[in-house]
Structures are given as C-alpha cells and as structure tokens.
Design goal:
There is one protein chain. The protein has one domain. Strands 1-3-2 form a three-stranded mixed sheet, with helices on both faces. α1 runs parallel beside α4. The protein is built from 16 helices and three strands. It is mainly α and about 350 residues long. The protein starts with 5 loop residues before the first helix and ends with a helix. Pfam families: Zincin_2. InterPro entries: CHP03883_F420-assoc, Zinicin_2, Zinicin_2_N. It comes from Nocardiopsis aegyptia.
Length: about 350
C-alpha cells in the first residue's frame, strides 16, 4: 500500500514553489558554469585542508533550479521511507476500517503536506549533498550527489550585496565538505540511513497514532503562531525511545554541519577575499527573518539546525585547536568514534574517550 502519494508530493511542491529571481539568460548560464567550476576548485581546497581523501572521483556539482531540487528530494524520501514501510507491513498500517480510509485519503493528504514543505524549503536551500538516491539504470545505488540550487544562491548574494564569485566559492566550500565527509568515510551513509529508519520504525503508524500525530502537529502550529518558543514538528512526535535515537541523529548532523561551517570559514581567508563580510552578512540574514519564516523554521525544526551549526562548529574548532586536524579526523573511524550529543557540547569528553586512549595504545 502507498502511505505517501509521491506524484502528488512532486506536483504540489512544483506548483507552490515561488519562481526564482529574474536573471538574464546569459547571466544564468554564466552562474551555472561558474558554480560547476567553483565546486571543483572548492573540492581541492577541502581535500588539502582536511587531509581527507575521497574514495571515488567527485566531478563538478549538479546545478538545479527549485523544481529540480523538489524532485530530487522526493526521490530521496522514497529511498529512505519505502524500505521502512515494507518492513512495517500492511498489518501495522491497516488494522482497522479507519486504516483503509487513511490509506486511500491519507496518502494524498500526506503527499500534499510533503510537497508544501518542500516548496518552502526549495526557496531557501543553497546546496545539499544528497545522500539517498534511487538506483541507476544498471541497478547500482549511487553513493550521493552534490547539488547546488542556482536561483537561491544568486538571490542570496544579491540580497546580501556581496561579491558573487566569493559567495559562490564560500557556499561550495561548505557543500564540498559534506561530500568529502561521505565519500571519504564509506560507512557513514549507511549509518545515517539506519538511524533515520530506526527513528521511523520506533513509531506506531496505525490510524490512531496518525490521528494523535496530526493533533500534536496542529497544537505545535497553534503554539508557534501564539509565539511559543520550543514547539516544532520534530519534538511534537517524540516518544522517549525516539528521543534517544533523535539525540544520535542530532549528534551526527551537528558534527557534519559544524565541520562544514568550520572548514568553509577556516579555508575562506586564503581563497575568499571578502569572507568576513560574507559571514557577517550571512549571519545577520539568518537572524532577521520575517515572521512567516520564523514560524516555518520553528515548525520544521530549522531553529534546531541553526543550533547544530553553532554547536558542531564549536566542537570541531575546540578539538582541532587542542589536538590538531589529524587527531580530529579519528572522528571518522567508525560509528563508535562519532561524538555523542553530550560530547558535542563537551569536546574534552570526546578527546578523553577517543584521542587519548589511542595515543596511549600507540
């Protein structure tokens, strides 16, 4: 049975997404060509600075528009969710007459909801390393794909009034760091996918639970509109078991995002002359959101993501500052060497657990 109508999700997202900025055709072509070129330039800088080595050739980033980003992300959701839904089996999803109604009507409703969320995000995301891709024509699963959303990058650099080439390279440095994390660490992609699937399987997806979730989501929306500070759709759905898994998801995402921010800013002064101006304006832009953006970010847990950038970057900076990049890179050895959420907030605890025992053993 289908719990999410994927076609409805794509069609809704593409219909609702706002058009990008007005750009002359020649300027648009120049932006696409330059982003491809700068993604390759950035990959070299990231490799040299981090000391990490990709296990496969990278090639330039894939440049997409907003509808292209929506289609790619629906594909990604399918890759993660469909095995989970098969594992749940029809008996968990369809245990009552209400369950039949949920499957018939709910799949379209859920598709509309997913499409609406993606239409909002498609206007915000600058770039992304897509971890979860459908199998290619030969049946093999690609390890991932780096995409840059050209209209959003152009729109942001215009709004911030910064040097276009510098800003594009700065964005590429962050996104290429994500590509490096996953192409140099072969186990990381499967680990993240397992965490996501574990999180989803930890919830009962019968009709009653679905109604409870919708009620919780409605309360979260109402609370956010009233100005509540801590509601988002992620926390609205958490059982104690889910919270424990969510802490592990948050820890690995904080590491990945913080590492990306740390590398982009550390490499920046050497290769991006206006990096200080870009960072200052980018930070100010994050802080001065309009009310709708603030509510949407809160609901979608994006405020949580902003904290992940800050805490993760502080963790990386503290560890590299104390023990150096080579010792920091032990973080990528195995799932056991990843920091816990507590260690993200207490870098010395991670150093004491991972780096110091290894040094003594040697």
């Amino acid at each position: 049975m289908t719990v999410i109508d994927w076609d409805v999700a794509v069609n809704t997202g593409v219909r609702l997404v706002r058009p990008g900025p007005q750009v002359d055709l020649s300027d648009a072509r120049q932006a696409v060509a330059q982003l491809r070129e700068l993604s390759t330039v950035a990959a070299g800088h990231v490799r040299e600075f981090t000391g990490m080595n990709p296990l496969e050739p990278a090639g330039p980033a894939v440049i997409v528009d907003r509808p292209g980003w929506i289609r790619a992300n629906v594909d990604g959701f399918r890759v993660v969710l469909e095995p989970v839904l098969q594992q749940m089996g029809a008996e968990r999803l369809n245990t009552s007459p209400a369950g039949n109604l949920t499957s018939a009507v709910g799949s379209r409703i859920t598709g509309v909801q997913l499409g609406a969320v993606l239409s909002y995000l498609a206007g915000k995301v600058l770039g992304q390393y897509e971890l979860f891709l459908p199998p290619g024509p030969d049946g093999t699963t690609p390890t991932g794909r780096l995409t840059l959303v050209a209209p959003n990058i152009v729109n942001t650099e215009r709004e911030m009034d910064v040097d276009a080439r510098d800003f594009r390279l700065w964005v590429c440095l962050h996104e290429e760091t994500h590509r490096m994390q996953f192409t140099a660490t072969p186990w990381l992609r499967a680990y993240v996918q397992e965490l996501m699937q574990e999180l989803l399987l930890s919830s009962e997806m019968d009709a009653a639970a679905l109604i409870d979730r919708l009620r919780a989501a409605g309360e979260a929306v109402a609370d956010a509109v009233r100005g509540g500070r801590d509601s988002n759709l992620l926390t609205a759905f958490q059982t104690p078991e889910q919270k424990e898994i969510m802490d592990r998801v948050t820890a690995v995402m904080s590491l990945a995002e913080g590492h990306g921010d740390y590398v982009m800013d550390a490499v920046g002064p050497e290769v991006v002359p206006t990096v200080e101006r870009i960072r200052a304006r980018f930070q100010k832009r994050r802080e001065t959101l309009n009310p709708l953006d603030r509510i949407m970010r809160q609901l979608l847990g994006m405020d949580l993501k902003m904290r992940q950038y800050e805490e993760g970057a502080a963790f990386v900076s503290a560890v590299v500052g104390q023990v150096g990049m080579t010792e920091f890179n032990k973080v990528w050895t195995s799932p056991e060497t990843l920091p816990t959420l507590t260690e993200i907030r207490d870098p010395n605890a991670w150093i004491d657990r991972v780096v110091r025992p290894a040094a003594i053993a040697e």
